[in-house]
Amino acid sequence: MASYLDQLEVSARPSTVADAELTLRFFAHRVTATDPKCVVVAGIGRVHIEDFKRWLVARPGKKAKGLSTITIRHRLSTLRTFFERIMEWEYDDAPARLLIYSSDFPALDEPLPKFLDDPTASKFMAALAVDPNLRRRLMVELLARTGMRVGELGGLEDDAMVHYDGVDRLRIPVGKLHNDRHVPLLPMLVDLIVEYKALRGPSRSGHLLERDDGGPFDRRTVHRYVAAVAKRAGVGHVHPHQLRHTLATQSINRGMSLEAIAALLGHRSMDMTLIYARISDRTVAEAYFKVTEAVEAEYYGLSSATLAPTAVSDTQMPRPDHRRLLANGHCTRPALLGCAFESVCERCGFFETGPQFVTILKRQRKHADQRGQSDRSHLFDDLIEGVADAQ
After folding, report:
1. Cβ(267)–Cβ(273) under 8 Å?
2. What are the backbone dihedrals phi and psi of residue 243, each rounded to the nearest 5 degrees, phi first?
3. Residue 297 has what pLDDT?
4. Which domains are seen in the chain, by residue range?
5. Pairing mode of beta strands 324-325, 181-184
6. Cβ atoms of 69 and 106 closer than 8 Å
């Protein structure tokens, strides 16, 4: 195992090597604890793999439920790669056959990336535009308008902004996928960078964004910055990667090609980009309404023009207020816009509440507290605070 890790250091990042070492230590400890006679890798069999799988499932995780499915899959994948490599490299101590199969991996849920819908994103960006902290505003604007990752933001060099072919661009350094790229910059981002660098003075670290002491920003600080903007906007909790998902979703909804989105986000595989094609709600909605219009015409013998909102004048039929009363607020979603929301209304960008609903919001928070539903409790806390701030 030590020889394998030595070879891995040549081609992998230090964090990857450290993670592989931790997995191998876990596995070796478990094997020797349950079978003291097994002292060589060649002596490992399926019985050890199956025991390790049960041990992983039984281990406590960050939450009371134990290790996540992703973590278990990751540990098994790292171990399987170890066996594959030492067999390919013909180590004397390699097992005779591969011991971990695809069926050993627990099924992984594939939830859609969480993004901000247009109303929520508008509120967030409006609050960001008036942020009094120039550095914080620049950092969050870069995340939201370029789609870069948090790690890439911290790695931006002081001379990352360049101008060629008549366009200002930002060079995003080699990061998660070992590739660098140039992304176009909006004029307002160019102005922010210039203003920030003038206020900051010469860079002490060689990086564009640095703390007051010249050190680099850590991920937690960036997360706090984004959360602070979201709190002022009254849109609940937002994490930095949601801004990346939001940019991609907005881009595909407005006709940007998948190839261009892949280049913007630095995706190495189009499979990564195709995820956003699955969450293109506006594209789906437009197609849905077009088909529904034809179906309604078939049902009622009406033409599409008759069904179109513009075909009925205000004198012919008064337009009702599209706000709909909910138990603890109002839904402001236009009647002709399909509701694609799959969770509670309170998380939707079209949800609005006010002072008259504070009593029921407090009851809902108490209900969530009594059942240990911390996420729901925090949600109602944010809504109640938002009402108080508005007053």
Report:
1. yes
2. -70, -35
3. 59
4. 2-104 (no CATH), 118-279 (1.10.443.10), 281-313 (no CATH), 320-390 (no CATH)
5. unpaired
6. yes
Cα-flanking dihedrals φ and ψ of residue 182, to 5°? Answer: -115, 130
Cβ neighbourhood burial of 51 (10 Å; 0-12, 13-18, 19+): middle
Question: Is pLDDT larger for residue 368 or for residue 229?
Answer: 229
Provide the whole-model pTM: 0.53
Least confident of 204-218, 226-240, 301-315: 301-315
Q: Alpha carbon of 200 to those of 23, 204, 211, 230, 369: distances in Å?
A: 43, 10, 10, 25, 45
Q: 340 is written with which tokens?
A: 């694609």
Between CA 179 and CA 170 the distance in angstroms is: 14
Q: What is the DSSP letter of 97?
A: S
- Whether the predicted pLDDT of 144 surpasses 80: yes
210's torsion region: left (phi>0), alpha (psi -120 to 50) or beta? beta
The DSSP code for 319 is P
Query: For residue 85, is pLDDT > 70?
Result: yes
Helix (H, G, I), strand (E, B) or coil at 332: coil
Full strand arrangement of the beta sheet holding 161-164: 161-164, 167-172, 181-184
Say how many CA atoms lie within 13 Å of 239 toward its Cβ.
Answer: 7
Neighbouring C-beta atoms of residue 164, cutoff 10 Å: 8
pLDDT at 342: 47
